[in-house]
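I am hoping you can look over what I have pasted underneath with an eye to the fold:
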Amino acid sequence: MLKIIYSLMFFMQVDPRIIQLQKDIEFYKFMLSAAGVVILILFIVIFLFWFSLKKRLGPQEKGVMKSVLRKSGPPAKPAAEAVKTVPQTAVKSRDLPDPGLVYKFSLADEKVTEKLITIGQTEGNIRTYSTEVMNDHFEINIRIIDNQRDRDIYNLPEKIFEEYILDMKRDGRVLIYYPGLEGWRQMGARERIYIKQEPDVAGDPTFPVIEAKQPVRLRLGDRLNQDEKFAAGYFEFHLFTQDYEVKTSAGIPKVEKNFMLRLYKIYPGYDMASPSPEGLYPMSDPFRAG
């Protein structure tokens, strides 16, 4: 009995610091548990954010993301010398114009009073697909001259000849040669030709017809050398007319014209082995060893 009473008295006299230490240990246990819960929540939040971001990213962004996260690998080996290949967009040889090809332009429709002809690189009525020619390089605007008001209805001719104005404009370099007038020269930015019987009062070149054997010659190219010749090459076109006869409502014969453009020459020719990145062809080098 005395031992029990003694033990109770000893327990009641325990140092209060031990009790405080036990309380501190319990508090630290609680804080560690709380910190673990917070860290777990953060991991869950980060995972959910990454998962939602991955769903929203496209294939390209995913590739960038992987390259950033991935450790840099060993340095790449120097690439071997690139092999010269033909671009997939290169124009096929069957689509290139051939010398001798003749383009015909008609104003036979009564509702048509003018026609625009354009020679360009990848656009226009005639497409060269050449690096020596630009789009809108050369154009001809053909217009019918309306002179019905000047005709005496009581003294009509036995045959009427349709008259035309040809307004020529260039954005690239053009050499021109008028039949029977002069040699090759640089064409001005704009020039005019008349197709009619009487000479033009302003002095512009006038021809009743332009024959195929004596055409208006045109050379289109890029750079000119000191001799006023194209340095790399050129396209030569011949412009001439072709007569055909119709009858007016009064039964009078009327001579109208088709306008013809013949691709006479491509000098020295396409370099089919060296297309540009755009798939266009330069001129071949006539002095290159075969």
About this structure: The mean pLDDT is 83.
